[in-house]
Amino acid sequence: MTSYLFSGGRVLDPRRADLIEGLDVLVEGRRIKEVSDRPIAATGAERIDLAGKVLMPGLIDCHVHVVAALVDLAANALAPSSLAALRAARILRQLLMRGFTTVRDAGGADHGLVRAIDDGLVDGPRLIISGKALSQTGGHGDSRARSNDREMSFSERVGALCRLVDGVDAVRKAAREEIKAGAQFIKIMANGGVASPNDPINALGFSREEIRAVVEEAENAGTYVAAHLYTDQAIARAVECGVHSLEHCNLIEAPTARRAAEAGAIAVPTLVTYEALALEGKNLGLGPESVAKIDVVRNRGLASLEIMQSAGLPMAFGSDLLGPLQRYHGMEWEIRTRVLAPADVIASATLVGAKLCRLEGLVGTIAANAFADLLIVDGDPYRDIRLLQDDGAHMTAIMKDGVFYKRA
Ligand SMILES: [Zn+2]
Questions:
Q1: Dist. CA 87 → ligand 1 center (Å)
Q2: What rounded mean pLDDT belongs to the chain?
C-alpha cells in the first residue's frame, strides 16, 4: 500500500478558523490513517515536506452539471451520447484540477460516469449524482421551443440534464427509475428558471402532491430531494413538502430561511452562474427569453447570502456553470467573500458539502479515516481566498483517494 507523510507546514482544518502548525498527516492507501501534533514515525511512507505551504482538504461543489458542455441545453441534450460522455470527461478533469475532489451533479450525469471515474478510466472528482432531474412539461427542464410540441423525454441521452414527467404516479416511477439507475438523491425543477425558454421565474414547478410523492420515494430509498428554486413562495412550498436541498434560493426572504433552517434543510447558492451568463450568455447561444431573466435573480444574489447566514440556514458551495462558462468557476469564491467570511465560504465547500453529499467525516476534512482528498496550497486561503481561484494555479498538489493528480 502506498503511503505518504505530510509534515513541516500548516494545516487548514475547516472546523477551526485559524491554521494549525506542526501537524503530521499520514496517508495510507485511499485514506488518512493518522493526524498527530507529534511526529509520526512511518518508515515505509514517502515524506512530503510542506515547506511553509498549507495542507487542506479537497473541495466540494454541490451543484455542477458535468454533462452540460454547451450553454444551449436543447442542443446539449441532442448531442450523440458518445460525444456527450467524452465532453463530460474533459469537464470532470477540469473540476479535479481546480481542487474539487468531490462534486454533486444536480442533473445529467449517470452511473456510467461514476463507474468510469471509479475504474480509473477518467480522471475526475468523486461524483455524487441525481441522474436526470425531473421537470414537468413546460418547466425548467423543458428546453423545447414554444412551437415544438413533439414528445421528448430526453432521458436516454447522456447530454440531457432533465426528463419530462407529469402526474403523481409518473413522478414516483421516474424517481424509482433514477434511484434504480444509481441516483444518490433526486433533483426536481420546482420553479421557473433562466436557461429555459418558456417558464417565467415565478412559475411553480410540479403540484404539491407530485413533490410530496417524490420526497416519499427518495426517503424510502434512504435519501432526499433537491429542488431548483428561486422565489420565496416556491422555497416555502418546497420546505413544507419535505425538500431537503434548496438550490439557488436567490429570492428567499428571512421567515422562509428561518423555517428552512428549522426543518434541517441545506441551501446551495450558485451566484457565479448569473454573473457568467450576464457576461457571456448571449454570445454562447442563450436565447433572448433567457437573457431577459438573468438580472431578476442576479441582483438579489448577495442579499440572499446575508439572509440565509443570519437565519442560520447552512449553505453549501455551488456553481451551476454551463459549457464554456465553467472557466468562471473560481469567481464564486470572490463573490461570496464580498459578504461572508472566507472561513465560512471554505466551510461551505468542505464541511457543509460533505454533509449534503452524505459523506460527513469522509470528505471535506483532515481526520483519521477520511478519504485522502488533499490539496497543498501556496498560502493561507483564510487570508487570501484568491488562492483557490485561477484553475488550481496556486495549488502545488492535488490528491484524491490517496493518488496525486497534480504534484509540482
Ligand atoms: Zn443547475
A1: 18
A2: 95
Q: Which of 193, 211, 214 is nearest to 141 (CA)?
A: 193
Q: How far is the CA of 65 from the centre of ligand 1 (A)?
A: 7
β-bridge mates for residue 64, sequence order? 105
pLDDT of residue 154: 66
Q: Which residues are registered as beta bridge partners of 266?
A: 245
Interval between CA 158 and ligand 1 midpoint (Å):
16
> Per-residue DSSP letters for 71-82?
S-HHHHHHS-HH
**Strand 3-7 relative to strand 100-105, pairing:** unpaired
Distance 2 CA to ligand 1 centre (A): 38
Residue 152: pLDDT above 80? Answer: no
Q: Is the pLDDT of residue 33 over 80?
A: yes
- How far is the centre of ligand 1, averaged over its atoms, from the C-alpha of 138 (Å)? 17
Cα 346 from Cα 216, distance rounded (Å): 32
C-alpha cell at 174: 421516474
Q: How far apart are CA 352 and CA 178, in angstroms?
A: 25
Q: What distance in angstroms lies between residue 294's CA and the mean position of ligand 1's atoms?
A: 14
How many angstroms does the Cα of residue 92 sit away from the middle of ligand 1? 16
Decide which of 166 and 287 is more confident: 166
